[in-house]
Predict the 3D structure of the following.
Amino acid sequence: MTFYRCLHPTSIALCVIALLCAIASCSVQAGEAPAPAPAPAPAPAPATIVPFPAGLPWHNVNRPLTSADLRGRAVLLDFFSPGCINCVHMLPVEARLAHHFGPRLAVIGIDTPKFDGSKSAAAVQAFIARHALTHPVVLDSDARLWNAYGVFAWPTLVLIGPDGKVRQSFVGEQDYGTLAAAISATLAHAPVTGNPAPLPNAAPVVAPTPLATPAGLAVSREITAISDTGHNRVILLRLGKSSTVIGTGCAGRTDGSPAATRFDAPHGLAFHDGALYVADTGNHLIRRIDLKTLATTTFAGTGARDYITTGYFKPRDAVLNSPWGLAWDGGQLYISMAGDHQIWRLDTLADIIGPWAGTGAEGLRDGPRRVARFAQPSGLAVHDHMLYVADAESSSIRAVQLPAGDSSKDSASLVTTLVGQGLFRFGLKDGAVTEALLQHNEAVAWQAGILYIADTFNNAIRALDLKTQRVSTVAHIRQPLALVATANGRLLIASGDGVQVLDVKDGTPVSVTISGLQPPAACTARSSVAADAASQQR
């Protein structure tokens, strides 16, 4: 069984080459990462729906689904892997399709995970909560459905007609129009028998919490900022004062006062020159919060999403692709563009933004910044003109020497891997950096010569000592998504539905209570994933 990488449409040709090589038992490189051992070619897609194997864990339904449940409606099977950014991009499209077609379409997530840390029920539930999924999801950890349908890449979508026949497969990211047309054509040839019986949906009832899957942190001398990602807002905590909430809590892309502003799944945060900058990931924007007026404006991006890997643009004209992490160095804002597998840079003096490091091809390759490869870069940290990158899909930490404000030295910027061995090498292993393993790490922070790592799918905080070149495990924390160093050897960590302070000396996390903070009121607008789908059409 061979798993190939997450795909954007422009990567499909590479995956076809890899598949042909697998058939011929030739050598395939995934960037510079060792690929899995050669395997037989995937089986051809079946002609009809494959019965769901007994015993697979189901989520968001009160019993396992059967083929009989799906008769009379179109079915869209979404083969995904948690953590795959291309898979995440399909979720809002599917939400929009489900809303448009109603009960005549069933969207079913088939979770065939790449990472070992994604194979538990708790990991699936965390993914469902993080992305507010309501459609049925089944855990296919042994790839039985994956193999039965001849799938070879994430994401793959399989369209099944109301008669149970497989109509079409889609490999890689797809746009709403393509999928909607295919579903409409499938339904057009089906007999009109009224709406099918409702599926036994049972989305989990989650008690509201003040924070929901926070995934961004930043600290200044006076303010601690938190991306309340699941609530689509930003929280500012001032020393000795109560919290300030920026955003209504409803997904959207509105600028203005704290009570009017709307975000969509904000992640990375960075303070700079009297403002807080926000990676508004679901909106594919960079936003700016003025710390005096608390007004939010759009700093970069159009709100559309596309795969743009070359060129320079005026910030407000640039098309971004899931900006994730932010870090300032001088007058330059560095952005981890997770969807493009690149590091972008916004030069405030020249007033331009564009790809700065990475080719856009997913992989783990070091060297000059223009030829290096990243794999879903996420959290960023800067110290002494060195940019540290949590490269999530390659389970690695990368370092990029910055030009210290002199853009003429850009060509000398090299990308090096500090720890990590490739797209398919991951685990929980301490020791020398040449042997240590991480697993889909999403954030990094520098403190006193040590890089602290949010090792997300290992449910751990790891430490990379830059002097001794060794990795150790500091603490075990459920799915840490962000971290930042504070004073006196402490870390502030965003995990689950809260924030914790960790003293790295004793490894004991202490939960932080934010006085007076309440979850937002229920939104009457569309969910964040549906709002994101609409943004892709702008």
